[in-house]
Amino acid sequence: MENQAKSKQFISLRLKWAFGTAVGSLLIFIVVTMALFMTFTQSLFRQERSLLNQGMTNISQQLAKSDRPLTKQGIVTIIDPDQDHSLVQGADYQRPVIKELSDRHLIVNVYNPQGKNLLSTGRPDVRPALVNDRQVRIYKGAHHQILVGHMPIYSQKSRQVIGYLQVENNLNTYVNSYRQLRIVCILALCLVVLASGLLGYFLSFFFLQPLSGIHDTVKAISKDPTKDIRVPVVKRNDELAELIETFNEMLDRMQRYIDQQSQFVSDVSHELRTPVAIIQGHLEMLQRWGKDDPQVLDDSLAASLVETKRMKNLVQEMLDLSRAEQVEINFRDQRTVVNDVVHQVFNNFKMLYPEFTFTLDDDVDEKIVANIYRDHLEQVLVILCDNAVKYSGERKEIHLTLSRGMSTVEIGVQDFGEGIAPADAQRVFDRFYRVDKARSRKKGGNGLGLSIAQRLIEGYHGSISLESSLGAGSLFKVVLPIIEDEEDK
Question: Which residues form the signal peptide (predicted)?
């Protein structure tokens, strides 16, 4: 039931991307459209208002030429004295007044001082207002708002009120343009939402396509962790390409860990099987008849002790390997003078193996301090020198070097013995790996020394490498980062 509920709640990232793109585009387009819509409509309204004011000015200037209160006959005479639609000559206007009276946008009404209608070009929607100054207002019309201007008409000579003028602009053109523009904006908004949603979906399908490969790979690995499958690499230079590359690297590491773990378990079981079988065989022999023979009893006890010691060493090395993988956590603040440790190990091995010739090339004059625990550096050098002693062959000579780079210190341990083939050289740092297992077991090795050394050095952000060839010996190089200005810390 829970799985069904979770599956019902699943929403594709492509749909989320498409929805987010559509909503974002809608909000942005609404803001832009509203700004353009308001600007355009306000411009239209100012044009309509200007048209009304211009008509009022033209008509009032023409009617103001009368010296007496306006009458119907007087208005006709003033407006068209020659019956030829003559132009009104003024400082600011040069257009026929008859056009103002015949303009379908405007409804002109002229009243005498007593409020009687003298001239009307249409039925007014607003009652006449006899005002003392010029006014332009918005009124509620039959279908929509209209613009109405009121003003008194003063005689140019006597400066007395000779009538009143009322001009109405029905704003039909403005309203029609307003409605058409609103419809266009709504359609544009719908188109933008649809187009941006589709574009967002297809873009998400294109950009997020690599996620399908990751999803399929994760699903396959969750069913079978040992399955060797990787995410298909895409030819793109973006975050998803880097994610795929990192993800595949993680899978490679995980696969290596699984393989190493399987190999580790196999090797441990194999390494323990032999000593356990030997001890069990001796004990069974003693139980049957060997305990009565002093010589057999001594030999069996000695052999059992040897195998027990081997098992103890193996367990100890396994513990060392486990601790080596945690050095970055437990020993990250340790400091060690590398010169002192190298010279100490060199002197100890000279004393332990007098039949060997040990040489040390130290090219460093000052103290070199590295971020490593002293015992761990000593353990690594002991492992390398011990291997060099074991595999030196007839030429019993060990060569140690100490040198400094720009920001690193390099320690080399070289023998001139058997050497290692290139195929084996790539695996000498693997757990329990031996180039010659029979000879290595006789020499007391468990195949964990180099693995411990590698884990220790890499835990301190260093590196260890091998250069070797059959019959010419081997050279192990340890490189560690240097800590500068130790005295000031």
Answer: none
Task: From 88, 90, 111, select the one nearest 98 (Cα to Cα).
Answer: 88
In a domain, 364, yes or no: yes
Question: In terms of domains, do 362 and 312 share one?
Answer: no
User: How wide is the angle at C-alpha 276 spanned by C-alphas 271 and 277, nearest 5°?
Assistant: 100
Residue 61: partners with Cβ closer than 8 Å, 6 or more residues away: 88, 90, 93
| Polymer length in residues for the chain | 489
Last residue of a domain, one of 303, 324, 345: 324
Output the CA–CA distances (angstroms, integers) from residue 342 to 62, 240, 384, 409, 410, in the order listed. 116, 47, 12, 12, 11
pLDDT tens digits, 155-181: 888 788 888 988 988 888 888 888 888
What CATH number did the domain enclosing 278 receive? Answer: 1.10.287.130
- Domain containing 19: what range? 14-179
| Residue 27 CB coordination number (10 Å) | 10
Distance CA 94, CA 62 (A): 11
Written as six digits, the tokens of 30 are 């609404």
User: How does pLDDT run across 400-451, given as a tens digit for each residue?
Assistant: 999 998 899 999 999 988 888 777 777 787 766 666 544 444 455 556 778 8
SS3 111: strand
